[in-house]
Each structure stands twice: as structure tokens, then as C-alpha cells.
Specification:
Helix content: 25-40%
Distance between the termini: 13 Å
Radius of gyration: 22 Å
Strand content: 15-25%
Strand order of the largest sheet: 21-22-1-23
Shape: globular
Structural class: alpha+beta
Number of strands: 23
Length: 439
């Protein structure tokens, strides 16, 4: 998306079909996994998004030959000539991404060293890398802090260990998997994240020759092997994008068929969607989303899988501004993911943020110290406004709000949305949105 701002004339329902590609939260990690192989890998269903381009650049500065397959959405990744990269080259590609932390394990195995620049990403709260560094130290890595970032070395190689995560962090789980598969001995990971994207990464590593078993109670066992080969794998579809389009259909009173959406990846979301007054029709090649009638208020608690994803609450909040009554969203994963609601309030929404959460409500998810809560009172009439996109999911939510609002909205900094949504403007136009590109 090579524009900084767009103008949306809202108040029109979205109708039509969009297609999902590979999940952003899986594809980039599978690209990193190719570093572990001794032969080329083929990754299929890769979306054309900026996060993929960033990881491709990082792989290429480390000597990986990345080419496109004949189908147009396949990548062939050849890691035969992996080499160390200059700090400046890494930093140039990684400035807007947190993915370099996951290069550490594979690079320590291949080169004996790795470098992490200062990490970027969306401004949705603190994402400490302590889990990653502590885990890498357990494997035998030496961590040295430098002015430009962090240098890791493994003079004696890496050895399997026991890692107990205090919180089922997706990134830390990926770190352990990518490091343990070629470490000497067995690694036991307790408190692991079990998102569908994690399971797809495990499937990729198993195709490469890894020995990984998922045990009850979030325990993963990895038996290290000396050699791994490349893989051929089609990426899981992006369930977060599916939920975003579903929320857009709900907010605009539209009818959107999301090709490639899978019920098993969206079970918790679908329950909330139905409670809020949405309806859906599940068929072999996707899910159709729309309204069943007037929207109803709901209470949402975000949580790690199989709970309600934090990525889903932002677009759903926009839809809940159109529900009659009071909805509550308890955000338990990130401490600063309600900043996008300021723009909704300027557009006419009635939203109150409680920075320390809400006590006294029956809860399924335990209260966390970083927790916030949003109370949404509706239904409210939204009017067009000038909006600046703050982060990936918040940005898509702003687009939904502009589509729902009466009148004209100017949405700036839209390039952030391209991190996770392929061909967003084209898809919106296919669904009947009235959009113009600003000069």
C-alpha cells in the first residue's frame, strides 16, 4: 500500500467475497525456520505484506537466496550459503519488526553467533524479550549487550534444557522450538502457547526432520537432531484477517464471504460473534458473515488460545458501538491496546477506558496486573473524521469505523495496515467500499 492516507465515504454495507492467504503470524516464522535446513524450502500461500518483505530482506542479508515460485504466492528459500550480516544491514531491514529475535536460535546453530538490533513493532504495550534471552541462556548462549543491540554467541554449541514460561507467550514458544530442534539432547517446554500458528510451525519443523511431541497441559517435548532438511508446506490461512472482515460485516450491516476461513481456527470468535447478533454460514471453502438482526451487547475477555484473541477485540469494539446496551472488553494480553478508541470517541462512540481493569465482574480469565477494560455504550451514531492509524489491528479497526460512519473520513498512516493485510484497498473496493487515494 504505497499511499499514506485514504478517504472513505462511509455509511454503506460491505457485500461480496474476499480471499485469505497465509497467516502473517505463521508465514514469517516459517521463513525463519528455513535457516535450520541444509536444503531449500518451499513455502506456499505467502501473502504479499510488508512483514514478509522485511523477513525476506533479513534472510537475504544473511546469505539466504529467496526466489518466487511459479504460482506467484510461493517462496523458495535456499539457506546453503548462510553467513553473518553486518549490524547496519540487519538494522536497516528490522527497524519496523520484532522478528529478528527469532533468528537467534537458527543462527547460533548455523554460525555460532547472532545479533539483535533494537526491536520495533506496533505500539500496543511492552513486549519484553526477557523470556527469549533467558531461554537462550538456558540453552548455553552467551548474551552481550552492545550500544546497537544484543550479540549472542554459543562457543560450546547449544544443549537441550527445561524451560517453564510464566505466561504462554507465542514468541517465546517459537523461540524455544526454533532453538531446541537442533540442540543436543531433549528440551522440555512447559507453559507453551498452543495457537494454530504454533501447531503449523511444529508441522513444518517435523517435515524438516525434527522430533517434537505435544503433551497435555501445555507441555512440548523436543528431541534435538543433528541435521534438518528443507520443507514443502502450505501456510495456514490468516484467522485474524478472517475475524477482521467478519467484524466489518457486522459493523456495516453487510454480507461478506471470507474464502479460506476455517471454523476450527475461529471457534471462540464465532461464539462471541453470534452472541453479539451476527450470523454465519460455514461451508467447505470459507465462512459467510452477516447480521441476524439488531446487535446485542457482549462481555469479552481476551486470552491466549483457545481464548478470544487480543487481535480480535479491536475490530469487534467498532461493531459493538452499534449494539444496543453496554458491552465490556477486558484486555488481559497487552496493556496499551485501547489507544485506538480515542478516534472512535471523536467520531461519536461512547467508550470509557478503565486503565486498571474492572473488578467485581464474574470472570473466566484471571485478572492480570497489566489489564485494562473498555466499556462501550451503544448504539451510537458515528460521523466521519480525520483519523491517524496507531497500529496494525487498530488501523483496520479505524477503517471499519470509517466505513460504518456517515460522511467522509480521512485515514492517514495507512501503510501500517499493509504489515498484515494483503491488497486491503483492492479487497475493500471488491466489497463495494467508496474509497479514494489521497495525493
Amino acid at each position: 500500500m504505497n499511499v499514506d492516507s485514504i478517504t472513505i465515504n462511509g455509511g454503506k454495507p460491505l457485500n461480496g467475497r474476499v480471499e485469505l492467504r497465509g497467516a502473517k503470524n505463521f508465514v514469517t516464522k516459517a521463513m525463519v525456520a528455513s535457516l535450520l535446513g541444509e536444503t531449500p524450502s518451499t513455502l506456499r500461500g505467502v501473502p504479499n505484506i510488508s512483514d514478509v518483505r522485511i523477513v525476506r530482506g533479513l534472510l537475504e542479508v544473511h546469505g539466504v537466496n529467496v526466489t518466487e515460485g511459479a504460482s506467484g504466492d510461493d517462496l523458495i528459500l535456499d539457506p546453503v550459503n548462510v553467513e553473518s550480516a553486518h549490524h547496519a544491514d540487519i538494522d536497516a531491514h528490522a527497524g519496523s519488526s520484532r522478528i529478528p529475535i527469532l533468528f537467534c536460535g537458527p543462527l547460533l546453530h548455523r554460525l555460532g553467533e547472532a545479533f539483535i538490533p533494537d526491536l520495533g513493532g506496533c505500539r500496543i504495550g511492552d513486549r519484553p524479550i526477557d523470556f527469549h534471552l533467558d531461554a537462550l541462556r538456558k540453552f548455553g548462549a552467551t548474551v552481550e549487550k552492545l550500544p546497537a543491540g544484543i550479540r549472542l554467541t554459543a562457543p560450546n554449541g547449544l544443549t537441550g534444557t527445561t524451560v517453564h514460561l510464566p505466561y504462554p507467550s507465542v514468541g517465546a514458544t517459537e523461540q524455544v522450538l526454533l532453538t531446541a530442534v537442533r540442540a543436543r539432547g531433549t528440551t522440555e517446554l512447559r507453559g507453551a502457547a498452543i495457537e494454530p500458528e504454533i501447531m503449523d510451525l511444529i508441522a513444518v519443523l517435523q517435515k524438516m526432520g525434527a522430533l517434537i511431541s505435544y503433551e497435555p497441559n501445555r507441555v512440548i517435548l523436543i528431541e534435538g537432531v543433528e541435521h534438518l532438511s528443507g520443507y514443502d508446506h502450505r501456510a495456514i490461512r490468516d484467522r485474524n484477517e478472517a475475524a477482521s472482515w467478519a467484524a466489518a460485516a457486522l459493523a456495516t450491516d453487510g454480507d461478506v464471504f471470507v474464502g479460506g476461513a476455517r471454523q476450527e481456527d475461529l471457534m471462540t470468535f464465532l461464539n462471541v460473534f453470534r452472541k453479539a447478533g451476527g450470523e454465519f454460514d460455514i461451508v467447505d471453502d470459507g465462512i459467510r458473515f452477516g447480521r441476524a438482526g439488531a446487535l446485542r451487547p457482549v462481555v469479552i475477555e481476551t486470552d491466549v488460545h483457545p481464548g478470544f484473541m487480543t487481535d480480535w477485540q479491536q475490530p469487534m469494539i467498532v461493531a459493538l458501538t452499534q449494539a444496543e446496551g453496554e458491552s465490556i472488553v477486558h484486555e488481559t494480553v497487552y496493556e496499551n491496546r485501547f489507544g485506538f478508541t480515542d478516534a472512535l470517541v471523536r467520531m461519536g462512540a461512547d467508550i470509557t477506558i478503565h486503565p486498571n481493569g474492572l473488578q467485581g465482574y464474574p470472570r473466566r480469565v484471571p485478572h492480570r496486573n497489566l489489564e485494562q477494560a473498555a466499556v462501550i455504550r451503544g448504539a451510537t451514531h458515528l460521523s466521519g473524521a480525520d483519523i491517524e492509524v496507531p497500529d496494525l489491528r487498530g488501523g483496520f479497526s479505524h477503517v471499519i469505523a470509517a466505513l460504518t460512519a456517515e460522511g467522509r473520513s480521512r485515514v492517514s498512516n495507512v501503510g501500517i495496515i499493509a504489515r498484515g493485510y494483503e491488497n486491503l484497498l483492492t479487497k475493500l473496493e471488491l466489497l463495494g467500499a467508496d474509497i479514494t487515494l489521497d495525493a
